[in-house]
Amino acid sequence: xxxxxxxxxxxxxxxxxxxxxxxxxxxxxxxxxxxxxxxxxxxxxxxxxxxxxxxxxxxxxxxxxxxxxxxxxxxxxxxxxxxxxxxxxxxxxxxxxxxxxxxxxxxxxxxxxxxxxxxxxxxxxxxxxxxxxxxxxxxxxxxxxxxxxxxxxxxxxxxxxxxxxxxxxxxxxxxxxxxxxxxxxxxxxxxxxxxxxxxxxx
Length: 202
Ligand SMILES: [Zn+2]
Fold this sequence. Notes:
globular; alpha/beta; binds zinc ion; Lysozyme-like
C-alpha cells in the first residue's frame, strides 16, 4: 500500500543517462535487489532528456527515504531526477515527464495531495534541490479545474483519468486502497457525467 510520492535528485550534475551509475552506487550500498533486477533504491529515475527509467515495481519496498513520521520506504514511491538542482535547473523534458508520471501514480494508488513530498520535507537535506512537489501540485490543481487544451504537457481529460482508475481497480486487493479508489472513481464519474464515450474499459 503506497500513500506517499517522494521527489529526490541524484546530486550528480551535468549529464544524461545516470541510470547505470546510480544502480552501481546503490549496489555498493547493498540496497535490495528488485524484481526488475536492479539495485537502484528509487522506483523511477527521470533522466535529463525526460526518459522515465524504472528500478523497481511500484508495490516494492524502496531504499530512498528515512525520515520522521512514517516508513517512507515501505509506503512511498521514490522518484529521482538526474541532476544536482542545488546548482542547475531541471530540463523542460524532466518537468513534462514528472507531470505525466505524477498524474498516473496519484490516480493509480491513489495518493492524496498532502502526501506528495520533497525529500527535504521529512529529513534535513537539500534533496531534491528544486521544488518538484509544488510543480506537480500546481499541475494537479490545473487538470482538476476547467479542462484546458492549450497546455503542452499531457492533460488527461476526466474520461482518461477515469479509464486509468477503472484499470487500476481491477488489480487492487488491499481493501483500504480499494475504497479510496472507489471514492476517486465516484468523483470522476460525476465529472464525466453522461458523456462516457471517451472512457476506455480495459
Ligand atoms: Zn533524496
